[in-house]
Every structure is written in structure tokens, then in C-alpha cells.
Specification:
Helices cover 35% and strands 27% of the residues. It is α+β, with helices and mostly antiparallel strands. It has one domain: Heat Shock Protein 90 (2-Layer Sandwich). α1 packs parallel to α2.
Length: 141
């Protein structure tokens, strides 16, 4: 039963949308399959951080979280229609510091053999994408 990650992402979108002026929605694509707990935790944290950054920096009106199950892995994307930024010059951390900034997100994804990419440009919104392979390093298929 793999309702846990999709359910958690659904709740995250609902609470983010209720607390902030942001229409956040979840889209699930592909065939859902059970994931290692480490994957679920990491992907949920990345979605949380992505939406938090959207709320804090982007001035977006909508965001879409996509959970995409593929035969070779799983991807979580957080896309917004906000201000965007130059990914080579990320915004300075806020006064409260970045509890879960891009650097630590990238490290967590890399530790599981995955990749984290950011597509953004000023005025064009931002898409944060975390992709994990079907089997984590050191785990049997």
C-alpha cells in the first residue's frame, strides 16, 4: 500500500494552500509502487522545502507538486509560477537561515544515488526536480 507518500504530499499541498495565498496541487503519474522509507522521507522533505521556498521567495500564485513513478525510478517536481531566479546565483538565506536549503537537499538526494535539478529564470517561475533511481545504493532490487 503506497498511499503514504502520495497522501503526505496531498496533505502538504492542502495545508500550504490553506496557510498561504498559493494554489498548490498534487499530480501523481505512472504506476505507484512501494518505495523505501528513506526515499519517501527525502522526497517529502524536498517537496516541503520546495513549497516553503515558493512561499518565501517566489511570490507565486500557484504551485504543482508532481509525483512521477517510472520503471527506472521516482521523481518529485515542485513547479511554481513565481518570480524565478538565476539558479547560478541563488537567493541569500533568510534571517532564519535555511534549515533545509538547496545544498542539503542536493546532498540527501545524492546519498540515495539520485539527482536534484533546478530550472528557473527571472520572471519564468521555478521547477525543482528530485529524481531517485528504482534501487538505492546498497539495497537489493
Amino acid at each position: 500500500d503506497d498511499t503514504t507518500l502520495a497522501g503526505a504530499l496531498e496533505r502538504l499541498c492542502a495545508t500550504t494552500g490553506a496557510r498561504h495565498r498559493l494554489a498548490a496541487r498534487l499530480r501523481v503519474t505512472g504506476v505507484p509502487a512501494p518505495l523505501p522509507t528513506a526515499y519517501e522521507v527525502t522526497l517529502l522533505r524536498i517537496a516541503q522545502a520546495g513549497l516553503a521556498n515558493t512561499v518565501r521567495h517566489a511570490g507565486a500564485t500557484s504551485a504543482e507538486v508532481t509525483l512521477d513513478y517510472r520503471p527506472d525510478g521516482v521523481t518529485v517536481d515542485v513547479a511554481d509560477d513565481g518570480a524565478g531566479f538565476d539558479p547560478d546565483r541563488p537567493p541569500a538565506p533568510g534571517p532564519e537561515g535555511e534549515g533545509f536549503g538547496l545544498t542539503s537537499m542536493r546532498a540527501r538526494v545524492r546519498a540515495l544515488g539520485g539527482t536534484l535539478t533546478i530550472a528557473s529564470a527571472p520572471g519564468r517561475g521555478t521547477t525543482l526536480s528530485a529524481r531517485l533511481p528504482r534501487t538505492a545504493p546498497g539495497e537489493r532490487a
